[in-house]
Design brief:
The protein is of the alpha+beta class. It contains twelve helices and 23 strands.
Length: 470
């Protein structure tokens, strides 16, 4: 039986003495039962990380340290050009302009490659049993690549309910290690209501659709997609007024009294706007009809949770959006309705109309390069390079993780990032995990002295989300 993380909530969230935290942890262990063979106890991280003062955990602290917090970094026309360059680099898609046909031979090869790659890995179900070849045979049978046409006619649609985007057409979770249930290897991302998609293929049972969205591709449940002609999709996306969700999450309702709840949507979600009188904004939502096609209906959202149009891209606004997310839980690939490190950044910058790619490696290819670090570069030179970048506008990337640079205190860089855990040396001299599982402020010393190395040691690139002057 795995140790449930919610048992350590008091340990994580409250500023307690060491003894009280230890007592809370022991109580949780007693409630959870004894650890089974092979299970690992991840210790909770302290509520306040070393080097982080309580005032650093507010947007105002960092705003006050910036001489020009309200200067416009990019105007709307510059943001449009910025996004166009990202699309031109092949890092995001324009679904409204997606081709009407797709190479079926290429698509067949892409799907087969994914299945073969997964077959070559050791993956486990949540009961810790290893997945076998019959699982993939069943999936392949439902996909039925032998029926793939040489040329695929692309259909278009909208997501009508929050949808998990999966690597394979199944909701079965697969883990790289037994019991590693917070990391489903088949979870690619999640899609919010109103997300436009290009539909390339369907499983034989009709339950799953292979889609491309702006940032990624994968399988979504067909019942969460409403089909629409491409011309109507374009017209809906070009609606002259729109609202952007600026709260960490916002509830969407089907009535103006906001009692018939539909879903919660993430920061950065965009909706066509019909009316914004009073305390409620009326938005336009795609609804799936019985025949699978889309019908546009009204939805309602609290006016305080949205901005009418994008927020102005200023350092103050970036800090404010970032710190709205402080302490929100981590979710690998948007598991549990949360967000991971790259989605955290994506949500922040979507508030300004800036389209960041979905994963950290791709995010590290956009914007203006400040530095690319070679292995074994002295740490003082890394710090010096980071300190030359723009606080609040700079992404620090390492393999598998990405962070937003906040600024420096006493010559030390600080970041805000969504992180699951970090390594530290235990009393026995071996590395152990400290569970954070949230958006947090930290310096770059986390992990120092471990085999994994510190955040600073692992950073490989520094990129500013600013206009490219080329």
């Amino acid at each position: 039986m795995a140790l449930p993380f919610h048992c350590t909530s008091l340990v994580i969230w409250q500023n307690q003495t060491y003894m009280r935290r230890l007592i809370s942890l022991l109580l949780c262990l007693l409630l959870a039962g004894p650890l089974q063979a092979g299970e690992v106890l991840n210790l909770p991280a302290p509520s306040e990380l070393s080097g982080v003062k309580r005032e650093m955990k507010t947007a105002g602290f960092w705003i006050s340290r910036n001489p020009l917090p309200d200067q416009i970094i990019m105007k709307p026309v510059e943001i449009t050009k910025f996004n166009a360059r990202t699309r031109g680099a092949g890092l995001i898609e324009d679904i409204a302009g997606f081709p009407a046909t797709y190479d079926g031979v290429k698509l067949k090869s892409e799907i087969a490659h994914v299945i073969d790659e997964l077959k070559g890995r050791k993956l486990f179900q949540q009961d810790s049993s290893r997945i076998d070849e019959s699982f993939y045979d069943s999936i392949a049978g439902n996909i039925a690549l032998e029926f793939m046409p040489a040329t695929v006619d692309v259909r278009f649609g909208f997501i009508t309910r929050t949808a998990d985007e999966r690597v394979l057409p199944t909701m079965l979770a697969l883990n790289a290690q037994p019991g590693d249930v917070d990391f489903d290897e088949l979870q690619n991302s999640s899609l919010e209501i109103g997300t436009p998609v290009a539909v390339l293929y369907a499983t034989q049972d009709g339950r799953w659709l292979l889609v491309h969205d702006t940032f990624a591709s994968g399988w979504v449940e067909a019942e969460r997609v409403a089909l629409v002609p491409q011309a109507e999709l374009k017209a809906h996306l070009k609606h002259k007024t729109f609202a952007i969700v600026v709260a960490p999450k916002a509830d969407v309702y089907l009535d103006n009294k906001m009692t018939k709840h539909l879903a919660a949507v993430k920061m950065g979600t965009r909706f066509a706007l019909k009316n914004s009188a009073g305390q409620v904004a009326e938005i336009l939502l795609p609804e799936r009809q019985a025949d699978g096609t889309a019908h546009i209906v009204s939805g309602f959202i609290a006016r305080e949770d949205v901005s009418l149009g994008y927020l102005p891209y200023t350092i103050r606004a970036v800090y404010r959006q970032s710190f709205k997310m402080l302490h929100t839980p981590y979710g690998w690939g948007d598991m549990y309705g949360e967000q991971d490190c790259s989605r955290f950044l994506q949500m922040i910058f979507a508030s300004f109309g800036i389209d960041l790619p979905r994963n950290s490696a791709s995010q590290a290819k956009i914007g203006r390069s400040v530095a690319e670090f070679k292995p074994n570069l002295p740490m003082d030179k890394k710090i010096a390079a980071i300190l030359t970048s723009s606080p609040g506008l700079t992404l620090l990337q390492m393999k598998g993780h990405i962070m937003l640079y906040l600024g420096e205190v006493n010559g030390q860089p600080f970041v805000i990032h969504d992180i699951w855990a970090y390594h530290e040396k235990g009393p026995d001299g071996k590395d152990r995990l400290r569970l954070l599982n949230r958006v947090t402020v930290s310096d770059l010393e986390l992990g120092k002295g471990t085999e994994k190395k510190s955040l600073l040691e692992r950073i490989v690139s520094v990129r500013e989300i600013v206009p490219d002057k080329r």
